[in-house]
## 1
Amino acid sequence: MFTGIVEEAGVVQAVTRRGKGWSLEVEVGGIAAGVKIGDSVAVNGCCLTVTEAKGRKLIFDLLDETKEKTNLQSAQVGTRVNLESSLRADGKVGGHFVTGHIDGTAEVVKWGRSGEDWELEAEVPAGMERYVVPKGCVAIDGISLTIGRVDGRKFNIWIIPHTYEVTTLRDRKAGDKVNLECDLLAKYVEKMARIVK
């Protein structure tokens, strides 16, 4: 479990085939001190398990499905990724509950400066728009964000300068894919509503 408050951005050092899956090596900063083998770390919002730790380099195993269904499919040496350690039971929830289980990728439609802030507009895959509501929660590349406007499958979010500076959103451009995790509560409510009928 995570909160969507990104701690830092790491840099991909290698993506290599390993058996039936993949190995992802990321150079990290301060989170290296508190992470050990077996721990969960959100990498661009994907909950991954640390399989090796070599100083400031963390290595994760990736299933084919994870690589294919997320924007980690385009990760290469030098790609920056958002990182968040898993939530401790006595930790502070600064964003919203994020599982690290990606629902799909959204396409960046518009991304640019808006006054002192930044505005990102994205389009979700067909069928996922039911989870996107104004003032609702969404995690984009592991970042807990509040939805602004919604227009069909498109929605916008406002990014404050701090979020722009400390996350990989500043690397994004129109046409890029971002990992999307919709609000967990919305999915439970939807399922329970179907059962009640």
## 2
Amino acid sequence: MSAIPTQLAGVTAVTKANVYFDGNVVSHTVLLPDGVKKSLGLIRPGSYHFGTTVPERMEIVAGTCRVTLDGTTAAKDYPAGTVFEVSGRSGFTIAVAAGLCEYICTFL
């Protein structure tokens, strides 16, 4: 697996933010030249559930989160530098205990 990127070159950034849970989760969409869609975001402390329509890969850039995939009961911690994937037409609960969790989400 490749390293989590520190920058994305040659992208188109969508300036309107994606704001969820009263501003506790905020992201911006970026479109890569090859058509890949990603979002760059941050999560404030709390627990949040997201549904997926397509498969997603979440790369944790900074901070730590705890994730429970829909259909499972086991929660797993993901510190900076780790990755988890979520199936399409599914979902996950992501919790941040303290500080901020920063991520890159790739829509597969």
